Amino acid sequence: MADEAVSRASAVSPAGPAPRWLRLTLRARLTVMATGLVALGLAAGAALLLVALQQALFTGLDGTARQRASDVAALVDSGRLADPIPVVGGSAVVQVVDGQGRVRAASAGGDRLVPLLEPGALAEARAGRAVALDGARIGGPDPLRVVAVQAGPADDRQTVLVAMSLAQLESSLRVVGIALLAGAPLLLAALAVLSWIVVGSALRPVAALREGAEEITGSGGSRRLPVPAANDEVRRLAATLNDMLARLESASARQRVFVADAAHELRSPLAAMRTQLEVAIHHPGGADWRETAVDVLDDTTRLARLVDDLLLLARLDEGKVGPRRSPAGPTDLVDVIDTVLDRPRPGRRAVARTGVPSALVDGDGDPLTRIVANLVDNAVRHARTTVVVDVRDEGDAAVLTVSDDGPGIPRAERERVFDRFTRLDRARSRDDGGSGLGLPIVRSLVEMLGGSVRLADAEPGLRAIVRLPTGSARGPDHGPDHGQALRDLGSPWGVDCEVGDGRQGRAK
Q1: What are phi and psi of 240, to 5 degrees?
Q2: How much is the pLDDT for 165?
Q3: Mean pLDDT of 204-219
Q4: What is 344-406 written as a DSSP string?
């Protein structure tokens, strides 16, 4: 059961042995708490019931006594008071006392010499309050409750005292108390059993979730936790956990694909180098060692570039590279573009720059250089004749556009090319299509700087549009130094992005 698992987990807590209360199962703790709360409620309810019942019985008894006293007072006022005073039932004692405390008349069995109440208590009764009296004062075993009513003419005021026995009232309270004492434990026992059953039923879906989690852990694969039928918190928890499992499964699948693609990409240049070296070793007479060295160096450069790309992506994924305002202030994007375009590049495709003469961007030059180099490199690779790099300043953002007059990319494929190791059908060759990491790196770096990138038609060709926030559009951010992170990759500006080297592709 789920509560047993919780109990076992508590027992082995690294903080030391758990308190005795926490060693109980969740089911037992909930049952004990529910039973204890109901017990407290029953005790408070029983006390209130007894107090209310006692008050109600006292009120009724006092009302009966006052009614009898009023009847006797009417006889006194009419001068028809008999002696002894007639009393219905034998549970009441009646006396008529004058102003000097003398007994004028009494009921049968009542004291005709000594008043029921002493002077102080008599004054309290005359004030309208009921007075408790020990039954021994009249020779009886039961306690009494005395009320008084004034009677007689103004020149001869008298007080009618009526004492009622409390034996029946106490008997009623005793019966109710015994019933509560006997019934409450039975009710608590029934409640404890019911709570045990209900809590067990409520925790059964939790146990099913735990068992499902153990099966997932043990067997792996694409599995989900069982979702209870009831639309309650446990069902929502199960749905949330299944969503989490789906995300973890998707992330794991992406990671496996990424690792497999990375291994395949790394193996290709290694295999090429090994083949060239083996051929040169086994056929030394016909080998051009200089050409072999150049080819191996090219493969080594490509391999180093791929490793740098993978390392940069790993740092971006882990959050070790984050946005930060450049220590030297905003960077001129136009200067970065001119620096990239001034690098030597093979091929006859012309690269032209248009737009504003200056556009300040909040970011270090290293990631900006990498963004521009990858986009220009990609455009040069696929342009037929011309590549145009345009920069516009829109106030809160600088817009970089890199256009080529090549074959373009179908609209349905434009988002997919930002996935890692993605190559379109016409760019499957690794010599022509690259590793498929260039555009993913561009998107990661642009988003790191707080911007966005998308692809659009150039009619003909393709246009890459990058929006980067300007220095006035972003506040200070004290995250990691992304420029330093890129410089740590072993190149003065992140990695060697040689424009037009013939080894990058459209889907880079």
Answers
A1: -65, -40
A2: 87
A3: 76
A4: ---SS-EEEEEE-S--EESS-HHHHHHHHHHHHHHHHHH-SSEEEEEEEE-SSEEEEEEEE-S
Say which amino acid occupies 71: D
Amino acid occupying residue 270: L
β-pair type (131-133, 103-106): unpaired
Contact assessment for residue 378 and residue 438, using Cβ atoms and an 8 Å cutoff: yes
Q: What is the pLDDT, as a whole number, of residue 481?
A: 47
Backbone angles phi, psi at 451, to 5 degrees: -110, -165
Query: pLDDT tens for residues 291-344?
Result: 888 888 887 887 887 777 777 777 776 665 555 555 556 888 899 998 888 887
Average pLDDT over residues 180-193: 91
Overall size of the chain counted in residues: 508
Q: How far is 19 from 10, CA to CA, in rounded Å?
A: 9
User: Considering only CA atoms, which of 453, 455, 447, 449 is closest in space to residue 466?
Assistant: 453
Q: How far apart are CA 18 and CA 12, in angstroms?
A: 8
Provide the 10 A C-beta neighbour count for residue 478. 9
Give the separation between CA 469 and CA 450, rounded to whole angstroms. 7
| pLDDT surpasses 70 at 270 | yes
Contact 167, 161 (CB under 8 A): no
pLDDT for position 508: 42
- For residue 106, the number of C-alpha atoms closer than 13 Å in the C-beta half-sphere is 14
272: pLDDT strictly greater than 50: yes
**Closest by CA position to 500, among listed 294, 340, 389:** 340
Cβ contacts of residue 273 below 8 Å, gap of 6+?
296, 299, 300
Is a pLDDT exceeding 70 seen at residue 431?
A: no
Which domains, from first to last, does the chain contain? 2-55+171-218 (no CATH), 82-167 (3.30.450), 233-313 (1.10.287.130), 322-487 (3.30.565.10)
* Greater pLDDT, 37 or 235: 37
Which residues 6+ apart lie within 8 Å of 372 measured at CB?
Answer: 333, 336, 337, 340, 389, 400, 402
Q: In a 10 Å sphere around its CB, with 0-12 CB exposed, 13-18 middle and 19+ buried, how is residue 318 labelled?
A: exposed
The C-alpha torsion from 334 through 336 and 339 to 345, rounded to 10°, is -100
